[in-house]
Amino acid sequence: MGTFKAIRIDKAEKGTTVALTQFDEAELMDGDVTVRVEWSTLNYKDGLAVTGKAPVVRRFPMIAGIDLAGTVEQSSHPQWKAGDKVVCNGWGMGETHLGAYAEKARVKGDWLVRLPEGMSAREAMAIGTAGYTAMLAVLALEKHGLAPDQGPIVVTGAAGGVGSVATAVLSKLGYHVIASTGRMAEAGYLKDLGAAEVIDRNELSGPAKPLARERWAGGIDSVGSTTLANLLSMTKYGGAVAACGLAAGMDLPSSVAPFILRGVCLLGIDSVMCPIELRKTAWNRLARDLDRRKLTEITHEIGLDEVIGAGSKILAGQVRGRIVVKIL
Asked: Does domain 3-115+298-326 have CATH number 3.90.180.10?
């Protein structure tokens, strides 16, 4: 048993403390697979954890990080052997189970997904939970029956991680994408990803009417609160909105009108405890339906020692696209 580098969060008298330090391998939690972590990523939830801005962490000490890609070192799980390339998202990593901002992780083999053929570990983390969540939202809209010929799809928080991947995937699938952002200076970036239109988030920030003019067949929302309420009020008859985030808050100041007068559906997207078969489907679709060139354009790389500072930036809405974290 030895030590390895990790971002450790501890309980303090007021809030939490966080530091890049050496972590004792003997303190790793139970699991039947040990992974050498090569890449991770920075998500909004990671920002909350490392800054202590919200009570994301529910066990101490905690290693932050909800995403990893790497190579199996040891396994007693029948599906995995040393040398296998794997991806792991969610399952409480970085919250209740020691997470990914570390050179080693021990997890349950049932949590792992095989790295898709032709995809590198770095590319998988350029996608990360944000991109995987975006694909879950796309799959939900498709299951609802939405198709490109039914009208535009709106994506909120479009310059962020979920929004960037959603915009790129939807445009490749042939949808007319309306990208909503609070950073209109990013309009060129969003159009390069495939957005047909870019609108200011202020169009969706005022008090929502029970029903407003029908503007889109569906949407992917990572913002929540008033923005989601406005999306619902502007969704066409029989449409659907996939909700996967709460950057603006957990409340939903809406009414039943869109649901009972237009037959609109609100589709909830959970990435943390999502069943393994749906995870596999999402990752295989990402390997097929996400343009790798666009993925490269939206990705910025940092080291493990830069994660804590970057956490504050993602909460302040100062991060464009995706951040990958080089672990080894």
From this structure: yes
